Amino acid sequence: MASHRNEPKARHRLTAALAVILTALCGTPVLAGSITMSDRCRVPDTYLRFATALERTGWRIGHRSPVRIYILGPLSSTARFETELERRLPGINVEVTGGQQAGLADDDFEMLRTAVARLQPDLVIWQVGVRDALASSDVEDFENVLDEANTWLEHRGVDLILMDPPFVPHIRHERIYTPYVGEIGLVSRTEGVPVLRRYAAMQYWSIQREKLRAPPLDTRATQPCVNELLAEAISRAASR
Description:
With 240 residues, the protein is an alpha/beta fold. It is built from nine helices and five strands. It has a single domain, classed as Rossmann fold.
């Protein structure tokens, strides 16, 4: 839980929030996905690396067993994600089930417990942070829920991936997401929870479009790329 950390939380949170901005602005990174990913969806390689391996998912893939995935949150097309993942894992049967969020992170965790008991997934993908940001939830309470959910799933041998909020440029309230993106990153670093860094990836795409003097990023049009990023990151983690 959060109380066992040695360094002050405030310092961690400041570092996490700064990392959200600086990672997208630093240098020209080595890009990944030159073969399997669409050109418009390419991102720095670091955005495709999880903090830890997906042990159960990787084991099932290694043994050519079906992989059951539960996605909590508004991924627009679970079928598209399933297709992208199976394209990267030929011969593996992937079963994806989606569930709509109940509310804040604490409400989602209740829903997640029920879904895991019913569906017995190998991997849970939790899109989290948007509603808590809009509701100005306490960031420490938010972090504690993520810690608790991670521990609960670990005890049941279920892999977890957190997906942070989207980057929404040119929207007045966009900055409200930054503390929650930073908090999710903090949980990743201190607890080893894999995170799909959607915010950083979308911020990177936005900056690249500005450099090319292209029209501003349309966040709704990035969902196919998010599906690709998620599938690519999972396939890499499972093959560790």
